[in-house]
Amino acid sequence: MNDFQAIADRVEIEALRGEFTDAAMMRDRPRLASLFTPDGALRMPNIPVEQVGREEIRAGGERLQSQWDFFVQNTHPGTIMLDGDTATGRAYIQELARTLDGRQGLNYAVYHDRYQRTAEGWKFAERVYEVRYLDTSPLAGTAPRAAQGSGTNPADATATPAPAASFAHPASDERLERAAAALRAGGFAAEILDDAAAARARIKDLLPEGASVLTGASETLRLSGIDEDINTGGRYDAIRPRVLAIDRATGADEIRRLVAVPEFVVNSVAAVTETGSLVLASGSGSQLPANAGGAAHAVWIVGAQKVVPDLSTALRRVEEHALPLENARAQAVYGMPSAVNRLLILNAEPRPGRGTVLLLRETIGY
Q1: Cys bridge to 224: 68, 196, 329, 332, which one at CB 3.0-4.6 A?
Q2: What is residue 31's three-state secondary structure?
Q3: Can you give the pLDDT at residue 69?
């Protein structure tokens, strides 16, 4: 290898490490995952986390970032040791972070890296994260809401209040049991499951193969993999891909009919009360008819942080917690803010057994 090639390789690997930090800061997890080889690994023993393959790296990262209030990562250049089409190296990290449930701190860490030359350029074969210093003292500063956008567009700077940390805390088993009992008393079926993986497996039992299924626009479904299972797996007659293929200008009536009366609707909620009510919020209202009763069957997957004492607290959760987070997502994806234009409150199920609520012990979505 000549000196020019070695210089070019070092520059490209350094750019790869910079791209990793930029994707993390911009919350662009698909881009971050693309920086790894298809079987690349991201390992963080201190947490502990081990993600192998681009899909695990993307999904795991999105679940992690859904818990952030803010996150800042600085990368400082380290060593690079070339060996033909492979290389090893280290990068030095300083991070500040606060999560929505109030955990926070400053840390210094090292990434121990293995790199691989591919047809697409240098990629990470492995990154192993080693914390060298951790300080969990309360951080004195705050993040301006403008810093929460996913890019440099001024539209990302729309001011929104910080979500209330209390609405991000997972409910205790006692509160989950109380909510489940109240839901059952109101005619819903209610189950308590450990995590999203258990819900993903349970959905396959609840939805018969070939059933007509509509999924709601839900971060819980997306992060858990349930949305992908239903809409791309080929097991069901998935409504959402059909809707997306219809021209909205000429097919509005067809879309309206498809989403209003599916055989099954699978969704999440903004809040569930310990008195047995489910609260859904929407900007357009398009997915609410199926949830309200249009669908023959409904399944709602609910993270533990969405359990609240009563209906008034549930409405506060919608406005103070869910809306700011959805607003930030809508700004990043659609370039426009979100709004609570429609509210659906389900206090009971007149057709016992029609609706099933899967309450999770873990937090997921918002």
Answers
A1: 196
A2: helix
A3: 76
Three-state SS for 11? Answer: helix
State the pLDDT at residue 158: 36
Site of tokens 């350094």: 14
Weakest mean pLDDT among 63-77, 215-229, 307-321: 63-77
Residue 118: strand, helix, or coil:
strand
Give the separation between CA 198 and CA 250, rounded to whole angstroms: 40
User: How many Cβ atoms from other residues are within 10 Å of residue 266's Cβ?
Assistant: 29
Burial (CB count within 10 angstroms: exposed 0-12, middle 13-18, buried 19+), residue 40? buried
Mean pLDDT of 53-82: 87
Average pLDDT for residues 185-194, to the nearest whole number?
A: 96
Alpha carbons 124 and 122: distance in angstroms, whole number: 7
Angle at 114 between CA 113 and CA 120, to 5 degrees: 115
Tens of pLDDT, residue by residue over 320-329, are 888 888 888 7
Contact in structure between 58 and 69 (CB atoms under 8 Å): no
CA dist 62 → 33, 301, 307, 332 (Å): 11, 18, 22, 14
Q: How far is CA 199 from the centre of its chain?
A: 15
The mean pLDDT of 277-281, rounded to a whole number, is 95
| Residue 217 CB-density burial (10 A; 0-12 exposed, 13-18 middle, 19+ buried) | middle
Give strand ranges (E) for 10-161: 36-44, 49-52, 68-76, 80-83, 86-99, 104-118, 121-135
Task: Give the pLDDT band of residue 149 (cuts 50, 70, 90).
Answer: very low
Predicted pLDDT of residue 76: 92
Rounded CA gap, 76 and 98, in Å? 21
